[in-house]
């Protein structure tokens, strides 16, 4: 490995992989005025395509809030979803999961997952329950899977949660994001968020695996890398006819041109699918996903390479490629996202919340239609890498961090 590629690997792991654990616990606190959207200088001098595309005005929540650390014992949590009874189902990177109550009590530990590659950005990743979970107990999850030739691939699987909630059973892999990868990016940029459409089909985000020789496949319709995939519960393509004029297009591809899309959620007010994506150095994005659209990576981006040079031709716009509705520069490393759709905190309703890793905060985006008109950073003084978040059945916002914490943000 050359010294340059070693530096890139270290930079990628620093941005998206493991971080040192913090031993402190107790109650959290809110925004820190020394860290805000307006105090970070950009890493690249790009001009936005339209007003409000980046660096929205800073806002503050007016509702009195409580910030509480409920648990500090999670083992590198990654995905989080709600069970029908309100409890939280949380994956852990090394291949286990747990169920926690809304007050942070460990209810069950779950084993039985397939072997994972818990290196870099790999491991047991996202999880979501079947829309008919109350009847069939089926869960869907994805993970980094080792292949016989030592390459790695993002595998999507379904299984049944046992009646005693301690193990998963009848595991079936329904999809692999091919091709497998054996290069430097073997342990990097899997994407891997899972959401369901109204028909019970899955949307799955896939990363482009980081290598220069792999990233170009984000533009290839014959490759599953750097895509939003649309599949049935059995892993078959949902025939959206997204690319009717491309004979070699994989039929499960819904949209393409993504770097590392780690956030997916439905906007309950518009019914549109929103995505959060890691840029390179700068250029993190929020996109609205439409069938058949090209989101540009690695041809257009508002970021630069980690070594400080432009990506490709260094352009931010090109005909036929979608613009992000919002981007960050410098990077905040957006991961999981969730729309707040509860009446518990009225001023938050319709806002988009983003778990930020290198940014070490939860980002609140205030929307007017599809335009970001305000931004607030929460929990900036906790020193945590926020990985995923969900709105609980009680209207509180729950978030997990790489360091093993479970946070609750609620109305005081």
Key structural traits:
single chain; 412 residues; mainly beta; 3 helices; disordered N terminus
Describe this entry's structure for a reader.
- With 412 residues, the protein is mostly beta strands.
- It has one domain (3-411): Neuraminidase (6 Propeller), CATH 2.120.10.
- Helices cover 5% and strands 36% of the residues.
- It has 3 helices and 24 strands.
- It has helices spanning 3-16, 133-136, 212-215, and strands at 65-71, 77-82, 88-92, 96-100, 106-110, 124-129, 138-146, 152-161, 168-176, 191-196, 202-206, 227-231, 253-256, 260-266, 273-278, 284-289, 326-328, 334-339, 352-356, 361-368, 371-378, 386-391, 397-401, 406-411.
- It has a 4-stranded antiparallel β-sheet, with no helix packed on it.
- A hairpin with a 4-residue loop joins β19 (352-356) and β20 (361-368).
- The longest helix has 14 residues, at 3-16.
- The N and C termini lie far apart (53 Å).
Poorly predicted residue ranges: 1-29
Gyration radius (Cα, Å) is 20 Å
Reading the helices and strands in chain order gives: HEEEEEEHEEEEEHEEEEEEEEEEEEE
Q: How many separate structural domains?
A: 1
Beta-strand fraction estimate: 35-45%
Work out the helix count: 3
Structural class: mainly beta
CATH superfamily: TolB, C-terminal domain
Task: Walk me through the topology.
Layout (H helix, E strand, L loop, with lengths): L2 H14 L48 E7 L5 E6 L5 E5 L3 E5 L5 E5 L13 E6 L3 H4 L1 E9 L5 E10 L6 E9 L14 E6 L5 E5 L5 H4 L11 E5 L21 E4 L3 E7 L6 E6 L5 E6 L36 E3 L5 E6 L12 E5 L4 E8 L2 E8 L7 E6 L5 E5 L4 E6 L1
Antiparallel strand pairs: 1-24, 2-3, 3-4, 4-5, 6-7, 7-8, 8-9, 10-11, 11-12, 12-13, 14-15, 15-16, 16-17, 18-19, 19-20, 20-21, 22-23, 23-24
């Amino acid at each position: 490995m050359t010294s340059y590629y070693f530096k890139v690997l270290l930079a990628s792991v620093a941005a998206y992989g493991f971080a040192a654990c913090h031993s402190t616990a107790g109650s959290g606190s809110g925004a820190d005025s020394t860290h805000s959207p307006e105090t970070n200088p950009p890493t690249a001098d790009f001009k936005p395509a339209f007003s409000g595309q980046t660096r929205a005005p800073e806002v503050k929540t007016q509702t009195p809030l409580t910030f509480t650390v409920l648990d500090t014992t999670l083992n590198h949590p990654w995905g989080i979803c709600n069970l029908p009874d309100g409890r939280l189902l949380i994956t852990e990177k090394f291949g286990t999961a747990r169920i926690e109550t809304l007050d942070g009590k460990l209810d069950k530990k779950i084993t039985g997952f397939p072997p994972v590659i818990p290196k870099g950005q790999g491991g047991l990743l996202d999880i979501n329950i079947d829309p008919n979970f109350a009847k069939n107990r089926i869960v869907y999850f994805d993970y980094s899977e080792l292949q016989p030739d030592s390459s790695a691939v993002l595998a999507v699987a379904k299984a049944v949660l046992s009646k005693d909630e301690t193990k998963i059973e009848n595991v079936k892999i329904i999809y692999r994001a091919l091709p497998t990868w054996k290069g430097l990016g073997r342990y990097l940029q899997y994407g891997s968020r899972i959401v369901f459409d109204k028909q019970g089909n899955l949307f799955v985000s896939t990363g482009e695996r980081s290598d220069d020789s792999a990233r170009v496949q984000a533009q290839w319709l014959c490759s599953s890398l750097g895509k939003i995939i649309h599949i049935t519960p059995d892993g078959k393509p949902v025939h959206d006819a997204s690319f009717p004029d491309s004979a070699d297009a994989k039929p499960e591809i819904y949209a393409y041109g993504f770097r590392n899309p780690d956030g997916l959620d439905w906007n309950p007010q518009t019914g549109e699918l929103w995505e959060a994506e890691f840029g390179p150095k700068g250029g993190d994005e929020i996109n609205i996903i439409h069938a058949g659209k090209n989101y540009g990576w690695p041809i257009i981006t508002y970021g630069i390479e980690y070594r400080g040079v432009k990506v490709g031709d260094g352009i931010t716009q090109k005909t036929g490629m979608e613009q992000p509705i919002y981007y960050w520069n410098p990077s905040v490393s957006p991961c999981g996202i969730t729309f707040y759709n509860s009446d518990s905190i009225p001023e938050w309703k319709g806002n988009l919340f983003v778990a930020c890793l290198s940014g070490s905060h939860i980002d609140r985006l205030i929307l007017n239609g599809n335009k970001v008109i305000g931004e607030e950073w929460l929990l900036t003084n906790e020193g945590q890498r926020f990985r995923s978040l969900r709105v609980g059945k009680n209207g509180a916002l729950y978030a997990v961090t790489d360091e093993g914490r479970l946070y609750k943000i609620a109305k005081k």
